[in-house]
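Wed. Picked up where I left off yesterday with Purple acid phosphatase. The coffee machine is broken again, so keeping this brief.
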Amino acid sequence: MGELGFSWCSVLAVFSLVLNAAVFCNGGITSTFVRKVEKTVDMPLDSDVFSVPPGYNAPQQVHITQGDHVGKGVIVSWVTVDEPGSNIVLYWSDNSKQKNKAKGTTVTYKFYNYTSGYIHHCTIKNLKFNTKYYYEVGIGHTIRTFWFTTPPEVGPDVPYTFGLIGDLGQSYDSNKTLTHYELNPTKGKTLLFMGDLSYADNYPNHDNVRWDTWGRFIERSAAYQPWIWTAGNHEIDFAPEIGETKPFKPYTHRYHVPYKASNSTAPFWYSIKRASAYIIVLSSYSAYGKYTPQYKWLEKELPKVNRSETPWLIVLMHSPWYNSYNYHYMEGETMRVMYEPWFVQYKVDVVFAGHVHAYERSERVSNVAYNIVNGICIPASDQSAPVYITIGDGGNLEGLATNMTEPQPKYSAFREASFGHAVFDIKNRTHAYYSWHRNQDGYAVEADSMWFFNRFWHPVDDSTSAQS
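Structure written out below (tokens, as returned):
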């Protein structure tokens, strides 16, 4: 009887191991939605979304971003073509008719056989929080008027809504993505952009005309709400074969960010506060190893985050660390090894990346236990770790990443090869609602969503399986 009991115990033990293995190997959801297979094509140069505004020396490619660390500043950028014209911005609040004046700078650059227009950047400072402002550019020739609303004052329970787009490009699908975002009933107030802007480098000699068309394409959104920039691989523009050996030349001339406000030494990594969020932007394509400027900056930056002031800690980068597609697979691995322990230590809420032209959301996992010799090299559930979201699905001409690794890994909660955008809607210090919207659906449809519970103020399990 004892032997029989022992045998049953052995069987049960083995059965339990098998069951555990089955659960362990079981991943999340791979969406059953299949997008119609269509070639992704760039819109032709004469498309209406690229149209040049009428009038002599009319400002074009107008866009804004945050201009300081706390949200009281705005960087206004625009291009004039006929002549430099004025670099002055006139601005006034909604309830005032008195126009204020800010003076900017003007730059140009050459890239192979291309010469840029006159690129203007003007920082407006000391604005009032939560106020609508109008602004004018093109003073002296063709004046164009736009507006923006400053964020509420930084504070722990300030609600705020961020839009999320990555790898946009300028294809017909890109236009659908931007339109879908603009018409989403949950209105994003600031757009977090995960890198890969114009895809001009996909053209012969990195045709910089495509930087101009892209600037005109996004103006309808980026002139009215800040786009927070992350540099991707398509911004590198390193082309020694045509004599272009300075990386990021078009990008850094056209898109300014307030990097000095967070003591960064380069515009590729920086931080901002906005409402109840602390946003850290990192560069997958700048040196990030130990002792590099980016490493030293991040090492000092993370301890500065006061979660009693800004509860939500959000990180943007281009190359994802957790990716179960066969495209760009493990490209973010060396950066993950360097920085993931810090993300867990400081309880980052969410990391948004692009690069892979599809959508994926992870569970809260970390792979920080592995030390080369211990063999503990499988991502494990970790409630101090961020959710990793890949949203490189803006719609660019390179098309969708449709080839996924099989079986779906346990850390992957939801994945789908479709174009779309997302919204991160902060409610207070404890809760935020996240939704992803594929282009094929009606504006209010959520193809994927989850409630985020803040890692500092409400660190209970918010995994998909826990909520279902």
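Quick read: Helices lie at 2-25, 172-183, 209-222, 249-254, 293-301, 333-345, 464-467.
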